[in-house]
């Protein structure tokens, strides 16, 4: 450049030389500026298409894993443990025999109840069968005998009464014959009634009474058998033996002897605030993270208390999560994300696309490999996403990385693109 200028100066006056030099320097600076702009490096960015979607908001709470169901078992009867079939941590199914208590007294009670039932049934059957001809004949003969005895007693009474009235015998002697007559009359009436009853058959009241005796005997037998069956302590639910407080040969009392816990499902007990309790519903899906396991699980809300806990000043919530491999243990700490709202379908972008300036929010959209600054109005946000109420159109591409380094009109180089 200096050579060219020197050459030009050779044929010019001093004034012309200054004018030409100024023009050449201005042209040179303009050319250098254009060269600098043309070689300005592009900024590497990732972009995302603006799309319509529903945005869900969450509230995070903590909870504790508990068995889905748990039963502390207290035996119905007290007694010494004769057999023990379970161990701590063992699995049992509903109806399995867990242990057996000494049952000698219960066996005796069953035998006695069986004998009482046999006797009651025999009495009822005798009455229902009625009296045989032989029994009727015997009753008639007995009636004749008591009638004859009564006549003799009456004759003796009459004779000794006369003697007593004439003071030939003492009052004590007379009263003996008087009592014999009374007894004879009673025997005759009894024999007469027995014959009448035998010939007429059993009354409705008699049959009813005997049937009631049979029913009572049957109930006593059932109770005795029930007590005997209770010496076999069975599992009321399926699950795992989570505590065992008794051993072979020890005496079972009215205290819990073991605990059965169901852990194929786990119940998470948590609490929500007054402001959020009406935003959740039974059946809502819930995300649960266990730091001890470094794993997340999907559960569902099973119950929401309408009454706040007095100590915690918040509302109890119960969440159920499947636990088929038993890796979630009772007592484990859990982080729970509760769905509190879901928006209608609207434009959604990544929150990282937003740039704030003086209280306003902007994004950069991509056109012809250049960044164009656009002012936007935002709505709710959740989990790194934000709703756009105004300023963007579906399908436009927005910069989601390095947006804070961009200026309007800056050259960009796309290094990533996709619907995230």
UniProtKB/TrEMBL annotation:
Residues 105-228 form the YbhG-like alpha-helical hairpin domain. One of its GO terms (molecular function) is efflux transmembrane transporter activity. PANTHER family: MULTIDRUG RESISTANCE PROTEIN MDTA. Belongs to the membrane fusion protein (MFP) (TC 8.A.1) family. It comes from Orenia metallireducens. Residues 351-413 form the YknX-like C-terminal permuted SH3-like domain. InterPro entries: Beta-barrel_RND_2, HH_YbhG-like, RND_pump_MFP, YknX-like_C. GO terms for cellular component: efflux pump complex. Keywords: Coiled coil. This is RND family efflux transporter, MFP subunit. Residues 272-341 form the CusB-like beta-barrel domain. Residues 103-163, 207-234 form a coiled coil.
